[in-house]
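> Could you send the Protein THEM6 prediction when you get a chance?

Sure thing. Input:
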Amino acid sequence: MMIILLLLIIFIFSEAMDWLMLLLFFLLIAFCCLDVCYFLRAAAVFLWAWFQRPIKDITAEQLIFSRVSTSDIDLCHMNNARYLRECDFARFSLLTRNGVFSALRALKASAVVGASTARYRRPLCLGEAFGLRSRVVCWDDKAFYLEHRFISSKDHMVSAVVFIKMNIIRTSPENIMEHLCKRKVERVEVPEDLQHWISFMSVNSESLRAESKLS
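Output:
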């Protein structure tokens, strides 16, 4: 309905507006209705990753450097939600470079974030440089588990840690690993801290299912 309304407005006023004003109008609508900066940066990240050296080992770490900008902050330090946004872009790059996205396309499958947890240890302040270390830690029957670490450049302290559960749809992590490595790949050991988080999600799912039956 909104698209039809916008087209009607454009039709009525197009003859009275010059091309520059029409372009500005389109940009205004785009920025009001869409997170344009997110999509532009995502496209740039995919393009950048495409020309980077491939990561052959799926569990190998990727390091990206960045800096806290004015659009990232509240009260002069990085907003909590911005950490997850940065993890999105780092994950796009990592999974492009290590071939997981290519494998998903080849297997006609897809992936979606099923859960995330973040621990904020120390704020990253305006203008502060940091490194973002990302890696695939392990996998199970249904999902890959990734870790993102925000490392302050001034003293190398881990400022925040984010775990991501990336659910695989219409195939399995084992099939993706076999597609990439051309052989069966044994699962790697799950770290203790990640085991606790996976256990929490399992117990929480059982609790929610029980609540659904009661209602």
